[in-house]
Protein 1
Amino acid sequence: MNRINILSYLEESAVKYKDKIAFSDEVSELSFGKMLSAARSAGSFLLEKGFYKKPVVVFMKKSPDMINAFLGAVYAGCYYVPIDEEMPEHRIKLIFETLKPEIVIYDDTTEESVRELLGAAKGEAAEGKAAEGAATIAEGDATIAAYKYKDAAAAQENAEALRRVREKAIDTDPVYIVFTSGSTGIPKGVAACHRSVIDYIENLSEILHASEDTVFGNQAPLYVDACLKEIYTTLKCGASTYIIPKQLFMFPVKLVQYLNEHKINTVCWVVPALTMISGFGTFRTVVPETLKTIAFGSEVFPVKQFNIWKKQLPGARFINLYGPTEATGMSCYYEADREFAEDEVIPIGKPFRNTDIMLLTDKGEPALPGEPGEICIRGTSLTLGYYGDFTRTDEAFVQNPLSRAYRELIYKTGDIGRYNERGELMFISRRDYQIKHMGHRIELGEIEMTADRAEGVANSCCIYKKSGKDARGKIILFYEGSASEEALLKELKERLPRYMVPSVIKRTDRLPLTANGKIDRKALTSSEDS
Amino acid sequence: MDELIKILKEIHPDVDYDTNKKLIDGKVLDSFDIITLISEINDTFDVAIPAEEIIPENFNSAESLWELISRLAED
């Protein structure tokens, strides 16, 4: 029978690798067998409370339990929505406005925040009544219930209820929603279905040569789709994943020591995590001993840093991954197995199997060989679009202009690419103001909208500037108004996730305008050169 | 030391660097801040901080960071 539900990965591995540890962090670990029973319990618990086909907000500390809460939601026929424990309250509220959730799952770490978030919860959650009916509040017409993960995972399994849910489940049902930056100031929730995730993981695990011997060192946060790689490849192959403490990504020597200590052989990291290690000369002190596969993505790997890695680990495989959240994880890969000169750019290569990449010109025609065009994606990997927002979904997911006779959607990435003389796909630039900063996808427009709403700000413009020998990018915000730079920074810190807070904030009497009255970004960028 | 405080203040103007001794443990600085700091220190003091010195103990307070810079400048 063909695979139609991601849970079957867990179920098969739980038989084959029952006592093997699947996920661990510094303080806890979960075997495949334990995951299965806890996820089934959590699923039964949610069903018992009446949640089916609903978004389940998982607001927990990054941990093996958080992953299991995801799976519990899926067992209930629901879909999970991960929220970062460090996300500012303001942003969570924006997400909730779109999502209109009825249920939040939390843990000890986030209990306080959940209580504040749900405002009128009156501390019931804290008094241990969570399992009963929990902290609920009226927000408009809706009530949001909050339950502690521990209670859900300890509930009695209801095999019959789970079976009924599964019988009705189909592979175009959503698995998760992850929220990404939106240029209008409101985050967009990308919903993906079982079929897309399965398609992705089947192909990714082949590209990574993943097996039961694979030991991942996870860097990606659990609230972005980047973590699908470790979660579902581990479940599919009976591999294991160590969730690396976030703090180690500030301390390169300790990070490499951690990799060696846990015999990690595979990493799928954002580029800045890798360049931080090579850029500080870490290899003079400590060298990765067990690392065999290094996949990287999110932004361009500077060749100088790449060569340091390659020279240090000549036997390892280096794989460049490229793909937007809207097409479920990654869409293209390139095994960087040849030499690169420092002025070269590492290609993004070719599409995954069962994914097609089309380069389209502004006229909607295929780009000629060597000509740049917008990277458009076709295939099962296309997600379900933006949750609760058909307008923005319809703008980005459109009818394939090359096949007019039947319904076929493509996703327009907004990335410009071209094929090089070797026939390898190259990323060139963005066609809008979306940036990649420290591995995070950010719409500069969202920062501007947030700044514009601040007290004493009349108008603002955000630029991203890479400079210096290490090509470190800085987000720079210019604004007009009476607010002090310090006060504005404070306000932005309260409203934006940390990675979106500008590194430099500059008050200006008047933002420069172009001939047709738009803010002149080029003038602002060059003003930073002097 | 004043120059170092100036660099730190540019990253987080709202932090009192005289009293805060938990810049790392208290999650005041993140990885991007550390990279910025190291690069600014390199430019301002002409001191390259080697990887083995990039450890929490050296970054938890302005004072310990200043000690590190002074030590490296002497070598």
Protein 2
Amino acid sequence: MSTASLARGSSNALGAQLKRLVGGQEMILLLCILAIFLIVGSLNPRFIAERNLSSIFLGNAYVAVAAIGMSMVIISGNIDISVGSLIGVLATISGTLAVNGYPIIVAWLAPLLIGVLVTGFMGYLVAYLRMPSIVVSLGMLSILKGGLISVTSGAWISNLPAGYALAQLRPMGVPMPIWFMVGLTILAAWWMRYTAAGRSIYAVGGNAEAALLSGISPRRTVMMVFLIHGLFVGIASVLFATQLAVIQSTVPPNLELTIITASVVGGVSILGGAGTVIGSTLAAVLLAAIGSSLIFINLSPYWLRAVQGALILVTVLADLLRRRRQARRR
Amino acid sequence: MLKTATTVAGLCLVAGLAQAADRWDGADELAVNPLGCEAGATATVTPKPYDGGAPTGAKDLAGKEITLVDVPKLIGIGYFAATTQGMQEAAKELGNVNVKTDGPTEANIDDQITFLDNFITQGVDGLLFAANDPVAIAPVLKKALGQGIHVVGYDANSQPDAREWFVNQAEFNGIGKSMVDAMAAEIGEDGSFAIVTSTFTTPNQARWIAEMQAYAEKCHPNMKWLETVEAQEDNILSFNQATTLLNKYGDELKGLFGMTSVATPASAEAVTQAQLCGKVAVVGLATPNAMKPYVAADCVKSVVLWNPVDLGYAAVQVMRAVADGKLQAGATEVEAGRLGKLPIVNGSEVLLGAPFIYSKSNIDQFDF
């Protein structure tokens, strides 16, 4: 191989990478966020004041964290629609432990452990018993939602101990949930891109048989994805539970939809095999920015639902068109 | 696409502004009946004929010892523990009333009917209830009336003809007056405020907002309404909406009204986390337990609601008056012990009186 061709090869690779970055979903989302900041900020400069920017990034940080795990689940070719109920249950467990005098660290870590157990159970049913994930998680949604209302009868948890409010800490002046959102996104993005285990999620979601032939166990990969998902759900639950001084101990309405929307709008293909967690995090921030801008331009928050829906349709359509174009090229 | 979006946004903005000139967002279109501006003012009551039911062949119980059973929506929660406490206080004070509370452990209408049915079979002099469903509970209450048992409701009504009297904890105009007066006391007569509600179309909230607007225009004309935002019954959304209002209006915003027991603590939390306690007042409808941390921290001064202890107390007093023949169709008021004379409204309802303001001095006495 000559040096010239080597150089060309690497410059082509660099060009492709650049093109992917610029043309990719992440860049579109980033531009959308900037456009909202510019337009609404020019209408009312308070929109881009530090206070409001902080609120926007903070507002959906727990959604972004949960969307990391959700993105992995969707990339592996599955889905979890019980995630909103699970967050409600884990937040209630965490708060209950905290008010009953357990050490705060236990109240913070228990949701992670229980989250992994619950999603691990779902992962087992999906990976080893071949049950469709939508059915498994639909069942889990009903169990969690019904169980939570039966046990708590909707009573709120208050009088949380001092020091419990993890999400209200501000290391170096930046709210804790933003640290979690950024840190976990970078970590997960790196892991999914540069490790064999991370790459195997794409392989299994893209084509399970081909993955099997190349020595990847789809079962083990799906199981792993669900376990990791539980961990992220657990972290999101703690951020959710500690954001306010009371815990509502009901299932937050439509939370699973918001999380799945963040993943899908973030460019995670609902058919599996493609997408990044950077995209889903940017999408979560975009949704928060839209929500905030609706108040600044005096629009009903119900428009947020409509905009969310439109974003999903546009992204999925774009994904399908892209796939069709690629298939034709082959 | 951006152009279309901007056009749509523009149109909605115009529509929103046009509406704002007329009614506060979220207010309904029904007629309003604001109370007088002075403290303790009561409404001008439009007389309405008695529309409650009557027991057939009721015994003469005047002055005699009576046994009552109270079947609330559910037992085991602080709210109905408080109404039970009030009932026991009234029974003790009267001396010739025995009352016990029993009911389902979940707010389930079928279970509640079973409880009522059993007590009718056992035979009691009177039934007190807070209905889980106004229509479904009617047949069993009518059965009780048919056997000469007195029936009085409180907290949650049934169809009027299925009971004799209903103790109404608060009327919309009373809540409207209490809310606006409390806000005016905190932010002054020319302060600006915003409202966090559940949705613009929720009936109770829409009615309260309409009465608040009517009362504010009548008694506090210089207070300025900025905006109403919807936050459903979602804790985190309520917090985010309240925070965004604080961010949007800055120093201009002096007060936030919370219209639901979710929106009020979330608004208080938003003010707390924005470190604006003392600069932005929060006044709202909420249960005391959810508000205790903010009241203790002096971030919230007035939580508006009725007092469930007084509600239970009044229900037993009304029942005693019925048994004694002192409260009959066409009455305009009823003597209710330590609460004084309570007015009769809407044909067959006893009004508990002005809403109760929970504040630092009394909130710790309540647990619901």
